[in-house]
Structures are given as C-alpha cells and as structure tokens.
From TrEMBL:
The organism's taxonomic lineage, starting at the top: Bacteria, Pseudomonadati, Thermodesulfobacteriota, Candidatus Desulfofervidia, Candidatus Desulfofervidales
Domain 4Fe-4S ferredoxin-type intervals: 59-84, 85-114
Protein name: (4Fe-4S)-binding protein
Alphabetical list of InterPro entries matching this protein: 4Fe4S_Fe-S-bd, 4Fe4S_Fe_S_CS, CobQ/CobB/MinD/ParA_Nub-bd_dom, P-loop_NTPase
Record flagged with keyword Cell membrane: no
GO function term, MF aspect, one: iron-sulfur cluster binding
Keywords: Iron, Iron-sulfur, Metal-binding
PROSITE patterns for the chain: 4FE4S_FER_1, 4FE4S_FER_2
Pfam families the record matches: CbiA, Fer4
Record has Hydrolase as a keyword: no
UniProt cross-references to PANTHER family, sorted A to Z: 4FE-4S CLUSTER CONTAINING PARA FAMILY ATPASE PROTEIN (PTHR43534:SF1), MIND SUPERFAMILY P-LOOP ATPASE CONTAINING AN INSERTED FERREDOXIN DOMAIN (PTHR43534)
Amino acid sequence: MKELVIISGKGGTGKTTITAAFAALAKDKVLADTDVDAPDLHLLLAPKIKHEESFKGGHYAIIDKEKCIQCGECRELCRFDAISEEFEIDPIDCEGCGVCVHFCPEEAIVFPQRTCGKWFISDSRFGPLVHAQLDIAQENSGLLATLVRQQAKIIAQEKGYDLIIVDGPPGIGCPVIATITGASVVMIVTEPTPSGLHDLERVWQLAFKHFGIPCLACINKFDLNLPMTQKIEEFCPKNNIILTGKIPFDPKVTQALVNGKTLIEYQTFTAPIVAQMWEKVYKFLYED
C-alpha cells in the first residue's frame, strides 16, 4: 500500500488545494486529513458523514471534596498552578501530568480521560475520507493524526485500494511527525518567498534527513517571484528533492474554491499543469 502525504512548512501555501486536485485525478484511493487542529479538506469535498466517534486523549484531575482534607500537598507539587486555594482544579491549566493523583495521601483526586475532539469516516465525491477535529485548546493532535491514518489504512484494506492520499498539517511539530512516519513519499508544497524556501528546507530536514522519506516538491504561484523560484529550483536537486512542477498564479483557483470545486473540476488553466504533476507523482510511487 502506498501513502502519499502532502505537507508544507506553513499554512496557506495551497497544500489542501493540491490534495483535492490529486483526489479528483487519482483512482481507487482513500483520502485522509490529519491537520486535526484546523482541517479544511472536508470544506472543499463536502462529504457525508457515515461514522462519528469521540476522541479521548490524555487525562485531567478532579478533586473529590468529600475525601479531600485540604492538606495542600497537591498545591505544592503542581508546577502548573492549576489548583486554587479552594482546592479546585482549573481544567484549562491542568496539563494532566498525574503528579497530584499519585501523591495525594487520601487518594482524593480522580483522573478520568479527557474528551479532546471527534473523528469521522465520510463519503466524498472522490471516495472515502477520514478526518477529525480537535476541540479548542486541546492537545494530543499527534495521537489523533495517527488514529486518522490508521482508520484510512483499514478502509483501504477493506476496499482493496492500494493508495492513501493524506492532507497533512503544516510545520514540523508533533502532528506532522505523526503524519509522515512510515509514509511512502512526502510532497512539499512551497511558495517563492524567503520564508517559503526556509520552510521547505525545514520540512525536508525532518522528512528526508531524519526519517529517510523520499521528498517531492512543487512551487505554487511560482511566477510571483521568479528570483526566489530559481533559488528553490536550485535547492531541490542539490538535496534529493524531485520538483514535480511549478504552478502559476491563477485567480480562478480561488473562484473554484469559493464554489466548492477543485481546480480540476473548475477547469482552470492550471488544471493541466497539476494533472502533469500527478502523473509524475504516480510514476514515482508505482514505477520508480
């Protein structure tokens, strides 16, 4: 089974737009969105939810007032200052470390699991989609991203599909690490700016140098800054990154998104360029 993960060094580079376009072009695949903090692939694909389930990750502490003798041990040990003078625990400040639970002499602190969000299995016009939404200010995004990938693989096996296309999160943090670990190939969407080149290098260092995952790349809106585009073009071959294509700025792409369509469906003038990119990606996945 092949797993293509599309990521970027920061948000707003066009990662989801490219993912949706590939979804329109690819056959027999499962789609996944592991950007669980701010998912948006479902906004474009308008899927119908078939299965919804709560996601539990981590714990939080609650003081049982009937058992508590207010000895103050928990307040002294809590390095997050989450326990008030009235011996109530602020669920926002509590990091779920469990120190207070372990050292409470009266065993007066319970430690239930925290409900952090929801995950979904949906049907889209381009096939099955697994996606999720982390609740506001909740953590464990890496764990939820892993769960989304696992569910996508289960569906692919059940349907006999051999391809998963993942719309990954931006950056190089925990959810990105959880998304790319064990992937077949990573495709980095960048843009012709100094920060675009910098972020491309950061993601490449994580994916290729640290995890040894092959890297592809594309430059979105390349014609807005040709000198920077040239620098990115020079950077890629020197660092074993295969540049699959350069996408020009196209105002109709925004029109397509506003109308809930991919750039392929909307027949923008960039559609043939992205289709050629997909052919290169497919060849890399299955022929190289």
